[in-house]
Amino acid sequence: MSLWTATDAAAATGGRATADWSATGVSIDTRTLQPGDLFVALKDVRDGHDFVAQALAKGAAAALVTHVPDGVPADAPLLIVTDVLAALEDLGRAGRARMSGKVIAITGSVGKTSTKEMARIALTGQGRIHAAEASYNNHWGVPLTLARMPADTDFAIIEIGMNHPGEIAPLSRQARPHVALITTVAAAHLEAFGALEGIAREKGAIFQGLQPIGTAILPEDLPVTQILRDCADQAGAVVLGFGREGMARLVWAKPRDGQLECRARITGDTVEFTLNSTGLHFVLNAVGVLAALSAAGADLTQAATHLADWTPPKGRGGVEILGQIRLIDDAFNANPASLSAGLATLAGLQGGRRVAILGDMLELGDQELTMHRDMASDPSIASIDLIHAAGLRMRHLYDALPEAKRGTWADTAAELALNAGSLVAPGDIVLVKGSKSSKVSTVVDALRKGAGSTAPQR
User: Can you tell me the distance from the alpha carbon of 184 to that of 225, in angstroms, rounded to the nearest whole number?
Assistant: First the structure.
């Protein structure tokens, strides 16, 4: 089925098609390009124009370019534009404009991708669903997701992220969501924002792209909740709070066999659902998802039922049986809020010794050392038996711990990974967490290598 014809793409971008072609997908990477894709020659570390010949040889329907690249025939199927990224944004806007379904946008300091996946899976059986791949949430990922969206999509879920001020509002305006959900606001990217209030205002900018009388779903009981409400009010949105309080609230959550049996109240309706996690932060985000889907017109009961099919994405808090230990792989990213949530998940699991292996939290600004040290006072620390740490920042947490809880400290996660087997013992429950750049995922890899194959815990 055609996604873009040469005529439609040229009309959307103002470009010139050198031939008649029809594309069934859109790609920015020749390594994952599928036959029939429109290859978008973006410029990053390498110029995408250098890969156009390869893309066409792999079966690309056409390439989006600013000129005919070297080694490519002049009569090759191309769409020539002034600026490739601007043209991709134009394709995204056109893809959004021709779609008559509902769009849900999701942002937050923690949990964007896992929450997006919750929403996608919860919508099973409710029409054609289109969602961002992986963490496609930046100035490339959002227009690419929109450009890939089939015209007959019933529900689209768009993830929107940021690293610096001013990034979210333009992406939200491209997506033009009917519902926008903020998972939480926490100390992440503080180097760029200076304070939590600045992060809240940037997250609240997602409401600027809402359709008229759109719905803003925001977390209750944050120190910056009022800032989010102000942003929603300025956008003229219908505001719906979620959490332990609010119009969408968690009534109770009971652990059972590594899962949580939950009841929630969503704008007057009571629903029950099962979540394949013991993390309370995942449960609260699930409440937010149900509120968002209900606001978008989805069937609430059906959505709640399908939440049981969701599992945390790789590196984001899933629990695995790994040989003779249970592993919580939360090594994709970290900030104080997500680390606190990860420690709470570890503390809540019953069984053997609880062990945390922690890497540095990055991009926290000039208070980063204090933030690391203060984690030693987290309420869950009392329930954790042993903490190994890597990195100069995490040394400040390590030194603040009671001596009995101190395991091994190393300069780098790679050093811990070399001795991963000595960090844990049979029967342990192990949390591995840190910012992606801390490379603490190498410890996860080492533990997996030592244990052999893995199986998700159900």
Answer: 9
111 is in an annotated binding site: yes
Asked if the structure places residue 94 within a domain, the reply is no
Q: How many domains does the chain have?
A: 3
359 within 8 A of 434, measured Cβ to Cβ: yes
Expressed in angstroms, the distance from the first to the final Cα of the chain is: 37
Is 146 strand, coil or helix?
helix
Question: Is 43 assigned a ligand-binding role in the annotation?
Answer: no
Residue 243 sits in the same domain as residue 154: yes
Question: Does 109 show up as a binding residue in the annotation?
Answer: yes
Q: What is the side-by-side strand order in the sheet with 269-275?
A: 129-131, 155-159, 102-107, 179-182, 215-219, 238-243, 248-256, 259-266, 269-275
Residues 22 and 58 in one domain: yes
Distance from C-alpha of 444 to C-alpha of 450, rounded to nearest angstrom: 10
Sorted by sequence, the CB contacts under 8 Å of residue 122 that are 6+ apart come out as: 289, 290, 293, 298, 303, 304, 306, 307, 310
Q: Are residues 329 and 382 in the same domain?
A: yes
- Residue whose tokens read 């803003």: 216
Find out whether 340 is annotated in a ligand binding site.
no
Residue 194 labelled as part of a binding site: no
206 vs 436: CA distance, rounded Å: 25
Phi-psi sector, 36: left (phi>0), alpha (psi -120 to 50), beta? left
- 108 marked ligand binding residue: yes
Mention every residue, 6+ apart, whose C-beta is less than 8 A from residue 254: 260, 261, 262
| 114 in a known ligand binding site | yes
**pTM of the predicted model, to two decimals?**
0.84
Statement to judge: residues 274 and 358 lie in one domain: no
Per residue of the chain (458 residues), give pLDDT as tens: 899 999 999 999 999 999 999 999 999 999 999 999 999 999 988 999 999 999 999 999 999 999 999 999 989 999 999 999 999 999 999 999 999 999 999 999 888 999 999 999 999 999 999 998 777 899 999 999 999 999 999 999 999 998 888 999 999 999 999 999 999 998 765 666 668 898 999 999 999 999 999 999 999 989 999 999 999 999 999 999 999 999 999 999 988 777 889 999 999 999 999 998 878 889 999 999 999 999 999 999 999 999 999 988 777 788 888 889 999 998 988 889 889 989 998 998 888 999 999 999 988 888 899 999 999 999 999 999 999 999 999 999 999 999 999 999 999 999 999 999 999 999 999 999 999 899 999 999 999 998 753 444 43
